[in-house]
What we know:
Bound molecules: protoporphyrin IX containing FE
CATH superfamily: Transmembrane di-heme cytochromes, Chain C
Distance between the termini: 61 Å
CATH architecture: Up-down Bundle
Order of helices and strands: EHHHHHHHHEHH
CATH topology: Fumarate Reductase Cytochrome B subunit
Amino acid sequence: MYLRIRVWDLPLRLFHWSLLALVLTCLVSGWVGGWWMTWHLRSGYAVVALLLFRWCWGLCGGHHARFVHFVAGPRRVLAYLRGKREAAHAAALGHNPAGGWSVLALLGVLSLQVASGLFASDQIFTQGPLASMVPDRISDALTYYHTTVGLPLLYGLIGLHVAAVLYYALVERTNLVLPMLDGDKRVDAATAAVATASRDGWRQRLLAGALLAGGGALALWLNWLGNR
Ligand code: HEM
Ligand code: HEM
C-alpha cells in the first residue's frame, strides 16, 4: 500500500520535456548546419525563454522546484554519498543532495551555452543577435566557448543525467521517469507523514504562464534584434 505525493508541479514537468526536445533540436541543427541553422536559432531562443522561466521558478515554484529545497550544503552531500540515503530521502522527496547539484550544473551550463550563442558567429551565414554589438575578439572567444568548450561540458552532464536515471531504474529499481510524467512519487505512510507536497494548483500555473510569457517576450525581442 502506497500513497501518492505531488513532487513535480505541472509547469516543471512541461519545462523538462520541452527542454529535452528543444535542446535536442539545437544539437541536431547545430551538427547539420547549413539551412538548419535557422531552426538552430529558433530553438535556441525557445531555450532562452525556458531557462529564464526555470531560474524564476527556482525562487517561486512548487516546494520541490525551489533551489532552497534541493541545493544542499557539502555536509549533506557527503553524508548522502557515504550511504545515508534513507535519511536524505525521508527529508526530501525531490532531487537528492547530489542530484540537486547536478541539476544546478545542467541549468548553469545550458545558460552559458545560450548566452554564448547570442554572441556567436560563423563569419558567413549565422550569427547570434548580439554578435555585431561587441568587439570581434569577444565574439570570437564566445564562439569558441559555444562550439568547443560548452558542448563537451553539456554532453558530459546530459550523459551523467541519463546514466543516473538508468542506474535508478536498473540497480535501485526506482522509476524516476514516471513522477516526471504524472508529477507524483509513490511512498509509504511513514515517508508521507514527514514529506512536503509541491503546490500545483491553477494559481501556480497562471504564475508559471506569466513567467514563461515574460521569458518568451525577451526571446522574441532578441530575435527581433537579430533580424534588424
Ligand atoms: C537534453 C536532455 C536533458 C536535459 C537537458 C535534462 C534536464 C533536466 C533538468 C534541468 C532536470 C531538473 C528538473 C528541475 O528541477 O528543473 C531534470 C530532471 C529529470 N530528468 Fe532530465 N534532462 C534531459 C533528458 C532526460 C531524459 C532522456 C530522461 C529520461 C527519459 C530524463 C529524466 C529526468 C528525470 C526522471 C528527472 C527527475 C530526477 C529526479 O527525480 O531527481 N531527462 N532533467
Ligand atoms: C542549448 C542551446 C544550444 C545548443 C546545444 C547549441 C549547440 C550548437 C552546436 C552543436 C553548434 C555547431 C558547432 C560546430 O559547428 O562545431 C552551434 C553553433 C552555433 N550556435 Fe548554438 N547552441 C545552442 C544555442 C544557441 C543560441 C541561443 C544561439 C543564438 C541565438 C546560437 C548560435 C549559434 C551560432 C551562431 C553557431 C555557429 C557558430 C560557428 O559555427 O562558428 N546557439 N551551436
